[in-house]
Design goal:
145 residues; 2 helices; mainly alpha
């Protein structure tokens, strides 16, 4: 801390013994020890406070960077949504066909659907109806295949 060697400490002790005397030297040494302890605790508290402030500054910088990147991502998403909406509106109006992308079927790629038969569609029988647990609805005959 102060860069005091052993020989310097011995010289200080001898001078203190001569100046203070053997009766008051232990009390003075105890008081000096308490003061040095308080000084060391104060210095360590100051260091801890400075470290906390530095960490807080770093966290604030990281928070600002995260908020900025979130704003950029949100802006990009809004631009993409607006672009997609405008493309969908253009397609809905019938002005332009949608751009072809891999994996997207166009009307020319879809197989033709079978023509609707002249018979009216009969609803499929429920399992309860087939087991006799339910009565058929009025106007429909039970059909077994």
């Amino acid at each position: 801390m102060f860069d005091i060697g052993f020989s310097e400490l011995v010289m200080i002790a001898v001078v203190a013994l001569v100046v203070l005397g053997p009766e008051r030297l232990p009390k003075v040494a105890r008081t000096v020890g308490h003061l040095l302890g308080r000084l060391q605790r104060y210095a360590s508290d100051v260091k801890a406070d400075i470290n906390r402030e530095m960490q807080l500054e770093e966290l604030k910088k990281i928070q600002i960077q995260l908020e900025e990147s979130a704003r950029k991502a949100e802006q990009t998403m809004r631009e993409e949504v607006a672009k997609t909406e405008s493309q969908l509106r253009t397609v809905a109006v019938g002005g332009v066909e949608p751009p072809l992308e891999l994996g997207v079927e166009t009307p020319a790629d879809t197989p033709p659907q079978p023509a609707a038969s002249a018979e009216p569609a009969v609803p499929a029988a429920s399992p309860q109806l087939e087991l006799g647990l339910e009565t058929p609805p009025q106007g429909h005959e039970e059909r077994r295949t």
